[in-house]
Amino acid sequence: TLQFENGGTIERTLEFTGNNYTINTGVGFKNMRESMSKRSYSLMWTDGLKYQEKNTVDESNYSSAVAMIKDSKEVFDNSDYEETLTEEISGSVEFVAIKSKYFVAGIKPQESLDGELEITGKADRLARITEAGSKELDGLLETYAINWKMPIRSDDVQHNYTVYLGPLEYERLEQYNMQSVVDFGMWGISWIGENIMLPVFKFVHYFIPNYGVAIIIFSILIKLVLIPLSVQQLRSVSKMRLLAPEQKRIRDKYKDDQKKQQQEMMKLYQEYGINPMGGCFPMLLQMPILYALWTLFQTNIDLRQTHFVGWITDLSVPDVLFSFGYKLPLIGISSVSGLALVMGVTLFIQQKQTITDPNQKAIVYVMPIMLTLLFSSFPAGLNLYYFMFNLIGIGQQVYINNYSKNRPTLESLKNAPKKESWLQKKMAEAQAIAEAQGRSVPGQEFKPNPNQRKKKKNTNKKPNRKKK
Length: 468
Prior knowledge:
Layout (H helix, E strand, L loop, with lengths): L1 E2 L5 E8 L5 E9 L9 E6 L10 H6 L2 E6 L2 E5 L8 E15 L3 E7 L4 E16 L5 E17 L4 E12 L2 H5 L14 H19 L3 H15 L1 H16 L1 H10 L4 H15 L7 H19 L21 E4 L11 E3 H17 L6 H15 L4 H23 L7 H6 L6 H15 L32
Antiparallel strand pairs: 1-2, 2-3, 3-11, 4-10, 5-6, 5-7, 7-8, 7-9, 8-11, 9-10, 12-13
Helix pairs in contact: 3-4, 3-8, 4-11, 5-8, 5-11, 6-7, 9-10, 9-11
């Protein structure tokens, strides 16, 4: 308490408890309105949050300031080291927070307050010393500051706040209605992550304490949910594999005539009732779910410092199998993850199972290598999930190809009733329009309409003469 000669007082209270991450703080003014020139005070948080993780680049990617303004979430992210970001907001702010990848400092008024909020963000270039003793740039250090100005409108003012300083845990933040600080990705996908993926993962972990085993069981459950989509995709792949010899015959026969080759391919698909794009649509439907899982495992603090098995001692960071001692150009990684490596192997097997076009043969080898290197910078928990996801997919494909009672044959496909797909309808419509306009579409040979009369050239037309 600060006492003034005119009888006015300023009182600041701080209440700490030993069983949570919050501090209750209050600011009180009595008979101070006339004595204060600005008639306002500022609640400030300066110097941001200190980084806690080894990978500063990864931590900077998830560092930002977040404000909830009238049920609207505003995110302030400055990754430009050349300038300082300043945002000013007036009105009713439900809470404001500064977060890193796994921790958050948030301020929330205990009653509705109108004030002026100023958020400042700056990014400083970081450097590290390599094993050779040289200095190289290694990401950014983002620092955010809060200046919350509150007006004093009467002689007796009491404002109370809850300050949260702790882990970025959804359940804890939900107790203070600050769970929107947790980033689940873009709208729509974030709803899937927040309302489906996270509760299911928590439910699995409730019965299985080991997070690594919980991820394995969780990946199996997700695969079971996606069976209607994945089976349709895998069966489409199985049908295309049956046609591979016929496709090769057509390519060899018309290797010098691309238009004829495409025409024969379309006839082949129509004869056996196969949609060449049949496996793409189910895959696209699965993408929002897979992206929601990616955001869930990228920033889930439950995996932080969690041991799984063997060399995998922390599921929130890459499990380094061996290190190069330097960063690879373009890719920017300096080590290879063990789980990323086995994930790449499963991806290679999947590519061998699905890709039958010899023109795409390079993808079978290039994609697994590229993704192995890329995923080597991802958390071990995320790579464990994708490894299991691919492994189960391989088992499904083997079962459909070899053991399923309904596995197709060329004869069954040829005798089955044909149903024209949406893609085939659109291609037929495009061909009809092209013929009506007297032109051809790519891959189709133009056949003139016999009912249309050919226009004769006017050979008697007089030449134009220049006027003198």
